[in-house]
Amino acid sequence: MITRPGRLAGKVVLITGTGGGQGRSAARIFAREEAIVIGCDVDAESGRQTVDLVRAEGFEMSSSVVDLSDLAALNSWVDAAAAEHGGIDVLYNNAGRNRNGAFTDLTEDDLDFTLRNELYLTWNATRAAWQHLGARGGSVVNIASISGMIGSTVYKSAAHGTANGAIISLTRHLAGEGAELGIRVNSISPGVISSPPVQRLMSKFGDSAMFMPFVRATAFQKLGDPEDVAHAALFLASDEARYITGANLVVDCGTTVLSN
User: Fold this and answer.
1) 243 is catalytic
2) Which of 48, 91, 169, 236 ranks highest by number of CB atoms within 10 Å?
């Protein structure tokens, strides 16, 4: 029987927001590919459940309770992982929260909340890991959104779109600055993914959910799965993508390019 090492064998991977959705899927998929997965989540119970799932599948990961808006806690989590494992190879900036609504209904506090919990989390986590990544020629994968690329007459998400447009732009700038250190930086812009928040809205509003026009615009008229995003991230994090940096990989089943 021919066996091969995992695509991330021996690589130290930090993933934020591993308590559910895309983060949980990424933790499971990356662990199967033999990465050393270090996760974090603000919710202790959901983070523990992800660790239990990974271990039940015969793999290992660790998880910490971290409020990523707390710079001291964030830096401590990153530095402790680097110290324990001798460095960091991949940072997967997955965690984020936002507030949606019509532009005229959103307050300055709503905008500030969204920027702090999307753009700033990505900025601060990457800054905390930057020198560790540079020492290993590492990789950063940022989760953005197609809302950072397009507008909509129905899905009102000006704050979310602004934050994620900034994440896409930040990715390109960091790809340039990271080149001299051998750091690759890429982003992924998912369409509508069947995450816990999306599932809750589907249960409440069904086909009237505000994001359904995006779903109907996909080639197959269906929601994406968290695994669809995690597999894209796996590719970008792996050495298979060694010649890719500054890219924004769109995982939306054609929403942004197809016309009905």
Assistant:
1) no
2) 91
